[in-house]
Amino acid sequence: MWSSNTMPALAIVLSALSFIPSTSATVPLEGYGRDDYPVDCAQACSYAMPYNLDCPEYAGMTAEEKAAAYPSAACFANDTSYLTSIAYCIHSYCPKTVKIYKIEYFWEVKMIYDSEALTIRWSYPEALAQVNTTTPPKPMSPDETVFNRTISIDTTTYQSYMNGVKGYKAVAKNESMYSILAFMTCVMVPIGFSLLRFLPLPSSWRSKFYGYFIDPPAWGRQHSVATLGIGMVPTRGQALFIIYLIGINCLATFAGYPNYTPNGIFPDRHYELMRHIGNRAGSVAFANIPVVILYAGRSSVLLRLTNWSYSTFLLLHRWTATICVVQVALHSLLWLRIMIEGDSYPLVLTYPYWYVGIVGTVAFSALIPFSILPIRKIMYEVFLITHIVLTIGALVGSWYHIVFLYEDKGGFEIWLIIAFAFWGLERMLRILRVSRYGIKKAYVTRIDDKYLRIDIPDVDAHGHCFAYFPTLSWRVWENHPFSIVNCSKGQLDGESPSPSSASHTQSENEGAISPTEASVSKEMGGAMSNIRQLRVQCNTTKPGITLFIQNLRGMTAKLAKKADTGIAIPILIESSYGHEDTSRFEPNTEYPNTLVISGGVGIAGVLSSLQASLSMYAKPLGTTKLYWGIKSKGLVDVVKSMIVGGDAAEEKEGEPSNWGHIETHVSVGERMDIKRVLTTELENAIGGTTVVVCGPHAMCDEARYVCAAMARHGVVIRYVEESFTW
User: May I ask which residue range the UniProt record assigns to the signal sequence (predicted)?
Assistant: First the structure.
């Protein structure tokens, strides 16, 4: 069931996940390799101690200034009253089962802040030896304004602080647990869902299930076409996982806050929840950052381990990013309120962790408005640059926020390290894919006024690619997705081209251009002669790929200026992408038929499915039909010549013809009736049918809606959409 490419990818994911609880450049996560409160009872004693010591640095202060001051670490480490009192508290309340070495570790490392640079006056046994246990010390009375003797802590006070320590430990461990849960399930659940396709269910059940729960839009009829021009409605399958994403993040953010009362650390439950939820929102947002980056990667291992499309993962990338931004905003707003209510806001503004946190929050928040669909469609280059800049600002701000706040002791860096690793791996794989072919030459030909053709010799790729045109713009990093057409006659008709036949075809075609044709083609920009010449190029066994492009604006307009010049332009090819799960195209006993519906240059995206219909059998197992709607005939001539070497001009428009084993229906200049085509072909089909669609968004949405409706009524359909939606 698993391909040779799938098992290594799965091993990479499992290996990475196994390091999550403990791997970090600094310290592990709380409760998973780290325990901030290793001795609960000693920590409770530390919190229960009053801090109105008589410190040397208080000399010259007024009574009011002393009351507002907090002792230095050196004062705690050298104050006799403090050391003897906390030693007596530990001796009184810690169970005898607590090992002495654990208490000594607490004494040296955890008892006083900034203890690394301190030498504590007495060790725990030495401090305890200073206490007269024959006359036990008494608690500090309200009349005592200075803590200058050995005191005891009453049971009620100790228990309230012990409750606070228990609550803090439980919340801290839950924070780590829910962060790991959110990350791991967002990575593993798509893999688990995808494995369901291997269940041996009858095709009729599977078809109905997909017709009800997976393929249709979540509501209405549109999926690829933007609703109100703002965003796309997910499919029901996508919506189910989006609901899961929202649910698991709500659970991770708002669950797991036990209430221990009385609580000496947080006597106000409202204040306690604000702190805990604020911290949890920030922690889970950190855990979501690597998920956001993983979903956005076009080289992501999830694309190999699942049968989900890249467009689906881009949709999930946007939803997960939105959830992450909401969590960042919640974290910031709750802590802003805490600081304002505590009259600490003017002071905290001077701390580095606070203002770099503001930078991170602003960058995160700005990502949403700068990533809306209208900006992505109208100003893609602006979107791309701002997206990169804001993402860098958000990640750098987040990194220094936790570095300044926790001084490499929080463990949260692990999530950013994983995110950077995902990003670095993605970029490395892209570089490797590009370097596989290096700089190649691309020849641009104008098929007609609407379409361009790009031929790249000496490249053997399939599926989809991303093409870089470094000489067309100063933005050399920009790349554009294209469907690949393998340039070899006979691939779709079950034949293997030979050098002799290729040579013969070349001589015939070269001699078929009359002086009149040459004159006419010159006036038309060389389009006719170039089409004939490119037919010849694709009839050879020399490897190469072809890209079809609709002549619009931006990059395609620049390419159009290079057409028919005979001068090659440099190109970098990043491939191959897509079609990791080729079994979705292959006919089998359950789905022997293949029905392909294409619009315009969408033909390039479905040629691989037509080729796959012969990949397991010498002859088609069932029927293979192509319905293609296009505005002009020039591209039809080129595609047919690539498939069977004939000329579409020999056919009558609107009538079916055979291109090898493919029954072809081409509609030129008129809109296809998608519902009629699907109803006619599917209602009386013998066996199940794989329906492959690629073309304009409106056409794809109509095909999706009709196929889902027919599947719900018992027609056995396997729906595949090859359109790229971003």
Answer: 1-25
Q: Are 411 and 26 in contact (CB under 8 A)?
A: yes
pTM, entire model:
0.86
The answer to whether domain 582-721 has CATH 3.30.1360.120 is: no
Contacts 24+ apart (CB under 8 A), 454-457: 454/546, 454/547, 454/548, 454/549, 454/559, 454/571, 455/487, 455/534, 455/537, 455/538, 455/544, 455/545, 455/546, 456/544, 456/545, 456/546, 456/547, 456/571, 456/573, 457/537, 457/542, 457/543, 457/544
pLDDT digits (tens, 9 = 90+) for 418-461: 999 999 999 999 999 999 999 999 999 998 888 899 999 999 88
Following CA atoms 165, 171, 173, 174 in sequence, which dihedral angle do they give, to the nearest 10 degrees? 160
What backbone torsions phi and psi does residue 541 show, to the nearest 5 degrees? -90, 0
Q: 420's torsion region: left (phi>0), alpha (psi -120 to 50) or beta?
A: alpha
**Cis peptide preceding 369, ω within 30 of 0:** no
For the chain, give every domain's residue range.
6-34+163-348+407-432, 50-152, 438-577, 582-721
Cβ atoms < 10 Å from Cβ of 589 = 10
b/e map 298-322, b = 16+ CB within 10 Å = bbbbbbbbbbbbbbbbebbbbbbbb
And the tokens for 255?
């669950």
41-63: pLDDT as tens digits = 999 999 999 998 989 988 888 87
Quick check: 587 and 690 in contact, CB under 8 A?
A: yes
Which two structure tokens, joined as six digits, stand for 171? 């919340």
- At 717, list the tokens: 């359909």
Going from the C-alpha of 559 to that of each of 379, 510, 574, the distances in angstroms are 19, 26, 18
